[in-house]
Description:
With about 425 residues, this protein is an alpha/beta fold. The protein has helices spanning about 1-15, 20-40, 65-75, 85-95, 110-120, 145-180, 190-200, 225-240, 240-255, 255-260, 265-300, 315-335, 340-355, 370-375, 380-390, 400-420, and strands at about 50-60, 75-80, 100-105, 135-140, 205-210.
Amino acid sequence: MQTILTTALKELLLLARDYAGLLVLFLMPVTLVVIITLVQENILQLSGQRPTEICVQDEDQGPFAQTMESYLETAQLQVRRWETSTEELRQAVTGGTCQAGLILGQDTSKQLQHQIGQQLVGESDVDSSISALSLDLFFDPATMVGFRAGIFARVQIAAQAAELEIKGARLGELLTEQAQGSAGVQAATPAGPNLREMFTSTLTSITERSSHSSQSTMAEVLNPVDRNVPAWALFGMFFTAIPIAGTILTERQTGIALRLTAMPVSPLGLLAGKMLAYLGVCTVQFLLIALVGMYLFPQLGLQAFSLPANPWNLLLPICTSSLAACGFGVWLGSICRSYEQASTLGATAVVAAAAMGGIMVPVYAMPPLMQQLSILSPLNWAITCFSDVLIRGNPLAATLNDQGRLLAFSLIMLILSWKRAYR
């Protein structure tokens, strides 16, 4: 019994001194459960059970626009008023700042009331200059089809509800005028068939427009493969951090690292050489997954992975993402003491960064707190680059900010590893 207790005490003392082991055993599971739960909590937003933000540009400033905005909020759509130009709203939607944008055109209320008035007084011929009112709605091309269809339906219902409310109010005004008269003149009497037609017909319609000249509307639905292929390729690329860390630990444990430092070479050069080698590995990894998406997926009944008009635009995002993954692996190998620590810590960190960065669940489906924290994940910067090029059709220049973050992250990891190697 004494032996058992002594052995147990010894193991607890060893564990208490193993700070990395304590992090893996206690902090990492807590971090994962918090992040994954937060990410998945707001997935109900996709089914309309959580408010979804929609940017509304109100050029009408009339009763129809005001009534429709109130119905949008009732339909679990959080209205964000857009005060600048229509073109800037389109750019914001195309860039992913807003998932959906709605334009309420100028004089919409006036035209709608005029049409309702014509129907009430029995004028069968409606002015040809005033056709059915079309409200422009457009989406971020990177949003999923079910999400877009849900918003489209709710906007359409809100428009019809607002139209019915205005029709009811206009009918009430006309009946009041008929009962009271206007300066002794009998008001026009609404006809029964016209009333029936007025309340069964729809004078407003929602038309989905393209937010980008190179993008289509919901008639040509988003190909989910164009997002999944780069997303899970990035997930695999960042897992190369574990073999990178493993080689560094092996060199340290076998004494190879000590002999290398005795040579007239810089530790920074050695670490950079490792990153260059694994840069090629990550590039091949991405190309392999892309080829699977292009040729194997159609054989399995899935849509094929589609390359952009200029496939070379993918090369720079692949390189910067690979450098970020390699930099993380070099840093991981410099701080860990064993391969077990590196594998557990690396896998946990990559899974957490992938969940937080929008690899598993799109960022727009996350709660507001997680949307703000997602900017801290390198995988978020990387997947945003690929979405801009592949899905949104943006030029390569639009991805430079995120690629700059990836390069800065890689450089910081390399410098920290270099400092650690010198110590």
